Amino acid sequence: MLSKNKIKLITSLSQKKFRDETGFFVAEGTKLVLDLITVFPCSLLVATLGWLKENEFSNADEVVEADENDIRKISNQKSPQGVLAVFKKPEYSWSQEDLFHKLSLALDEVQDPGNLGTIIRIADWFGISDIFCSENSADVYNPKTVQATMGALARVHIHTVNLVKFLEECQSNIPVYGTFMDGENIYEKELSKTGIIVMGNEGNGISTEIEKLVTERLLIPNFPAGQDTSESLNVGVATALVCAEFRRRM
Amino acid sequence: MLSKNKIKLITSLSQKKFRDETGFFVAEGTKLVLDLITVFPCSLLVATLGWLKENEFSNADEVVEADENDIRKISNQKSPQGVLAVFKKPEYSWSQEDLFHKLSLALDEVQDPGNLGTIIRIADWFGISDIFCSENSADVYNPKTVQATMGALARVHIHTVNLVKFLEECQSNIPVYGTFMDGENIYEKELSKTGIIVMGNEGNGISTEIEKLVTERLLIPNFPAGQDTSESLNVGVATALVCAEFRRRM
């Protein structure tokens, strides 16, 4: 039986304010919950009897059985899948020493929660273990972002940083890449095995302040070059194309 | 002044049934409407006085001024941009002769309207002028798809076809490509300048029936190869990676 207090806690977590206050976030669906429960402390798991019988898991502080109607009340999904869990937000540390020996992503005010989730999934696919988000980026623990990661959130570490300060420290040690309309064709340019790839805001691209800290300007060419076309690619698609080219060379 | 009949017509067009019956579809926002109005017959344009003063266009059969409240009533957007237009769905023809000399996309039951829109935008970016959709794919004229194309719908021709019959005719003339977990690494495989690239359903990939008609099996490799990772890429992201690699070689 799902108490009123628990319903209140869970629904409040769709707001950033309450996620920040409590340190908790919500994930839904079998694959996502089972991926995350192996990595993040789970304070509460709510599921139907059917789900509990079919799935094995450990590490949940509290398990509450609920019927489908109750789950519908607390779900952010159109078609709830019979399971929802409350996790503790992780706190990750990172070291410059480690960072300077690999490829990482930095996001300059990516605003759409779905895009952020897609980018986390792409990072996972391409073996990028760390993403550094500016303080004005979408919140990683927004339910839409969490769902869009499809479980990649269990493997990719997301850090919220002062991006200007962060890139200032990076740029004297490793290349800082960004994509611009006047950059060099990524397919013709030498690419390093280490570095930071900066992706910008959906509407405005990389901000002027961050642009100054980019040391290598890339262009994703359209086809045929110079043809009138869509003005830009979606930020998730652009991230995938850039990551794929770095990894193809390795 | 927006009449009740017009409000009824416009709101009905969010349903496929009424789009099919009337042959009309709706697009919103300055860039999208101005991109489409140069290409598709516009039967009705609804805009605020402010928008009408600021923007130039021709070719609209009827223009109705409306206030923001009225536009909110007919809009599918969270933040309506002051303009919405009703267009006639185009009817495109295509010839095998033309098709056998270029690269095209085929979609096997892509279900999410946003993904379909993203794929149309990607096709535009990579100079792919034709997309062939199976009859059970999402409807191109769904408002979410139209909006997600960001205007690319004005340049890319979408055809709904019996995909089995279509690919049967293609495969004896040009390569039919598809991506599979057991395909050959796309970065190591020879790629033709002409052909059909088949992308599959979000959950199930390419169907068994269509798989039989694929002549070239590709793999988009993750990194490091064989590492435990997200199980798959979003279909829009996968489409972009495949198209980019074909175009990089050209």
Mean pLDDT of chain A: 95
User: What name is given to the CATH topology of the largest domain in chain A?
Assistant: Alpha/beta knot
Q: What is the string of helix and strand elements of chain A? A: HHEHEHEHEHEHEHEHEEHEH
Question: CATH homologous superfamily of the largest domain in chain A, by name?
Answer: SPOUT methyltransferase, trefoil knot domain
Rg of chain A to the nearest angstrom? Answer: 20 Å
- Percent helix among the residues of chain A? 25-40%
How many helices of chain A in DSSP terms?
11
Supply the CATH architecture of the largest domain in chain A. 3-Layer(aba) Sandwich
* Poorly predicted runs of chain A: none
Fold and architecture overview:
The structure is a homodimer of 250-residue chains. In chain A, strands 7-6-5-9-8-10 form a six-stranded parallel β-sheet, sandwiched between helices. Chain A has a four-stranded mixed β-sheet with strand order 1-4-2-3. In chain A, α7 (113-125) packs parallel to α11 (235-248). Chain A folds into two domains: 4-88, Ribosomal protein L30/S12 (60s Ribosomal Protein L30, Chain: A, 2-Layer Sandwich), CATH 3.30.1330.30; 96-248, Alpha/beta knot (3-Layer(aba) Sandwich). The model of chain A has no long low-confidence stretch (mean pLDDT 95). In chain A, 35% of the residues lie in helices and 22% in strands. The first copy, chain A, has 250 residues and is of the alpha/beta class. The longest helix of chain A has 14 residues, at 235-248. The interface between A and B is medium-sized, with 32 and 32 residues.
